[in-house]
Amino acid sequence: MESLAYLVRLSTAGLLLDVNTFRSQRDNPYALREGFLVVLIVGILVGIAGLIGNLLSRLASPDPLATLAIVQRSLERMALVVELQRINPDFSLDPVFSQLATTFSILQWSGVIGALITPFVYLLGWLIYGIVAHLTARVLGGEGTLAQTLGCTALASGANLLAIAQIIPFVTVAGTTLLGLIGCYIGLRTAHQLSAWRAFWAALLGPILLGLLLLVISCGGVAVLVAAAQGG
C-alpha cells in the first residue's frame, strides 16, 4: 500500500510540473490506483482548508441576520415606508425580510457544504475530463491506455494544492485552472507520446467539448420548459 508521504510527493510533483514524475507515472502499473488516491488526498486537503477558512471567516464577519434586522429597522423608519403603512395598515416589510433571512441562513452553510463535497467533485471532474481527453488524444494519434491517461492527468490535480491558501479567511487563489491545464497537457503528451500541438489540443478540446455539451443540454432544458409552459 502506498504511503501517504509518497502520494503527497506525487501530487507535489504535479504541482511543480515535474516531467520525470509524469514519465514514471506513465510506466507505473499502479498508475490508476495511485492517481485516484492522489486526487482524493488533494480534494481532502483542499476541503479541510476550505472548511477551516469558511468557519474562520464566519467568526470574523458580522452576523448577517443581525445586519439584516438593522437594515429592516432603518427602512421602517423611512418616511416613504411610514406613509405606505399609514395608507395601507396591512403593508409590512416582514415577509420580504423573512424570506431574505431564510436565504441568508441557507447561504451560511453553502461554504461548509462545498468544502465537504470537494473530494467528490475533484474525483468526478478528474474521471470525466480524463475519459474525454483520452478519447481526444486517441483520435489525434495517441498511443496511451485509459489507465495511463488517468494516472498522468491525476498528477495535474496537484495544482489545486494552491487552494489550501483559502484556510486564511477571505483569501482567494487564482491560476489553479491554468496550472492544472498545463499539467494535463504534460500528462497527455507523456501518456500518449503526442507532439506538442496534438497534446495541446487534446488538453483543450476536452473542456471545450464538455462546455458545448453543457450548453446544448441547458438550451434543451430551457426549450422543454418553454414548451411545457406554452402547453400549459
Walk me through this protein's architecture.
The chain is elongated, with a radius of gyration of 25 Å. The chain has helices at residues 4-15, 19-26, 31-60, 64-76, 79-87, 94-108, 110-116, 118-139, 146-155, 176-192, 196-231. The chain is mainly α and 232 residues long. The chain contains eleven helices and no strands. α2 (19-26) packs antiparallel against α9 and α2 crosses α10 (176-192).
Question: What distinguishing features does this structure have?
Answer:
232 residues; mainly alpha; 11 helices; 0% strand
Draw up the topology in text.
Layout: H1 4-15, H2 19-26, H3 31-60, H4 64-76, H5 79-87, H6 94-108, H7 110-116, H8 118-139, H9 146-155, H10 176-192, H11 196-231
Helix pairs in contact: 1-3, 2-9, 2-10, 3-7, 3-8, 3-9, 4-6, 8-9, 8-11, 9-10, 10-11
Summary of the model, kept short:
This protein has 232 residues and is mainly α. The chain contains eleven helices and no strands.
Q: Residue-averaged pLDDT, rounded?
A: 82
Specify the biggest β-sheet: none
The radius of gyration over CA amounts to 25 Å
Order of helices and strands: HHHHHHHHHHH
Number of separate helices: 11
The backbone outline, from C-alpha atoms, is elongated
Total count of strands: 0
Helix content: over 70%
Q: What fraction of residues sit in β-strands?
A: under 5%
Span of the ends, CA to CA: 59 Å
Low-pLDDT windows of residues? none
Briefly note the structural class of the backbone: mainly alpha
